Fold each of these.
Amino acid sequence: MVDTPVTPAAKRGRPPKAKTLDTAANAVAVKAEPLKKAATEAASDAAAEVESAAKGLSAQIKPIKEQAEKAAKAAAEKLNAVDWKAHIDPIKEQAGKTAKSAAGVAKDKTGTAMQSLSKLIADTAATVDAKLGPQYGDYARQAAEQVAGAADSLDNKDVDQLMAEARDFVRKSPAVAIGAAAVVGFVLMRLAKGSDDKA
């Protein structure tokens, strides 16, 4: 027999559907409905409480936020109102004077040290004459004269002239200036290391 929608299930050779399954599903749905409704109400209540708490916190935070914004604005206005150039110029001027004074003291000490070195070389020229010969003694005297001339030149110039000459020298021969700076740095490092070892 051909299966048609009008043909009863018993005649088609299939067992009839169990009505108990539909009944059980309806019973579960009926029992779940109150639970679903209670859960929805609980979630709605919880959301309302969270929203209420958030509004309360927002109300508490708002005046603090406004106060902080006012304080930040006032601080920014104070910073913008300060004439930094007027404060920095005297400090810059004082630093320049201090550096110039220190350079003057260093120049005087260097000149004195060079004069002493010149004297020492000239005094040892006679010993060099006796031990190595007059030719080497003449070299020592010439070296003493050169050092004395450099010391006199250093003493006769002020710090500004020396700085201008140093700038010109660096512009004309930067490689020599870098090499000289490296040698001076090395010597100063060795002197500092030697004084640390004694301490």
Amino acid sequence: MRTAYKFRIYPNKHQEIILGITLETCRHLWNMALADRKNMWEQEGITRSYEDQASILTLERQNNPYLKGVLAQAEQDVLRRLNKAMDNFFRRVREGARKKGYPRFKGYGRYTSFTYPQSGFKLNGTRLMLSKLPGTIRAFVHRQIEGKIKTCTLKRDGQGTWFIIFVTEQEDPVKLEPKTALGVDLGISHAITTSEGQTFDYPKYYIQAEKKNRAAEKSLHRKKLGSKNRKKAQIRLNRINKRVTNLRDEFQHQVSRRLVNSADLIVFEDLNISGMLKNHHLAKHIQDVSWGKLIRFTESKAERAGKSVVLVDPRNTSQRCSDCGQIVLKDLSERVHRCPVCGLRLDRDHNAALNILTLGLRGIACGELTSGLGMRPGRRLFIEAGSPSPLGAREEVTNCAIW
């Protein structure tokens, strides 16, 4: 299992200048490598590989003082990033994706991180030592690092703040047999509603900051391009957006931690969020509450605790009665479920959470339990989060009853 630890670092002015030069060197290397691949294909029909460009980099380092000032492994990682971006582009072309995503040339400020993939870094308590950098950097190490450190990445955000990200590797935790389960319905009026009837309301941080954000954007666009005042206005805008992101992440971390602590098995809907964003009346609110990030945070915490997260098909979870299974059609404005067959009266989101929990439990009952959560080979209604689908898409159960 691999885990990332992100800490803030505080370089002095001289160190910050050197780190900025390193970022710029990596940005120019990316652009030169991308231009080399593009020109070789257009002029000679030859595809450059990572190995080809790594050999060229070795020769270029002998004559370029800027390349010499950066650790060779960090520059090789830039070429690996480009190679991965090209591989992903060709994969999307083969799959016939609507957006192919050809790698872009990076303008000033658009390349924000570089990586030491193997060596060149050392952390002693709260002091960080880096190759090609004089002295040590103070780091705010707010939690203990577990496992063996594999890579070290330095990143600068839009406000000029620096962070260090360590990726560690350790043994996978023992998978627990699920004894308690929890269904979770994701929404807007209530961000999270559990099958136990508990609700978590998202404070809508972006909506609260929207007026300030709009004023900061107007102020930015009034400033002359390339001026110092425009840079100051950009920092003010970045500060507003960063605050919203931090508040949202704090809410998501707290809720995901409570979900993982409350059950061994957490069941979510496998929502098509990108499709839901096409509804322009709700897109802003859906993006603000960030359901996908909540699921990712819950998956990460559950994996570390040896617990499981399952995604189920969301169809009719809001329309079906959780007591008798009858379909009761409702529009989005109707917030109470009233079943004419069994007489059940329940909050719409609570009813959906109960249906989600039932789908998750019945999906497990139809599968062969391996590593705590298994499923029969072939078509299926539910997927365990983090497990790849054999056909690359969500599938349906054909060999067990749903209701």
Amino acid sequence: MTSEQQPHTTDFPEKRLFHEGILDPETFARNYILKCYEPSKVMAPFVEHYFISRRRPLYDPEYVGHDVLSRPAASLFIQPQGAFVQGPSLHRRTLRAKDSVLYVGAQFKPGGFYPFWQKKMSELTEKTIPAGAVIPGIKSLSDSALTELDDITILTAIDTALTAVRPRNEARIGFINEVVRYIEHDHITSVSAVADAFAMSERSLQQLFQDYVGVGIKWIIMRARFLEVTRFARTQPKPDWTTIATDSGYSDQSHFIRDFKKIVGLSPRQYITLVRSHKSPHANDEDSFFKASLLQS
């Protein structure tokens, strides 16, 4: 391994904005301490951030957190029970506090896991694979006394294991992330608008995202739209859903409600009731994201 490929063992600045996909961030924060860190420069083209989440001593054993607006990308999860990679998901992810005292890992950028996977990402969508099959060096971390390690030791181990795979950076990955940023920050409402902005045919753009990201442009547009909607609704004493629907480009209220429920997993009224109550709905065992993922791996 050359000096340029060596990870920076101490250069993991902590990120501050990382709660955007959590349905009820206030309740989550009362149960878990979540910290996210920048990857090394070597892994920056592929990894959005590393994360370490430790359960608080006085947690609610009935707490269920829903990461329903997850990024359009793969994620690496490492727990004392093992390590796995979760492919892109269009559905809710559920975390039960009583399932794990600690979880750590890496959130890849859209398209960022493709150089590790070396296959169409659509083949990994809604699936879970053992991390060791793609990242052999991660097994030593999952086999260790994970709960006894400090953050810098964990971060260095993850970064080192990923770097050892020697993924090849591609211009397409940077382009994909430019497209995603455009969608998220420019209030884009249609696939055709994205294709026009980047001088591509809709078909070519959709194929690129299916191959490298694993989800379509339309879902990414909907995710960005409802991320903004839920963020705004949480700030309102009594959200006016009719106005919110109109401002979001919906002329049909029922269409807005269907799309909201498809992305968030709850109706607008159920969502705001959940946030106001600061209680998370209980989940069945089969809904436990981490438990189910480990069983599949």
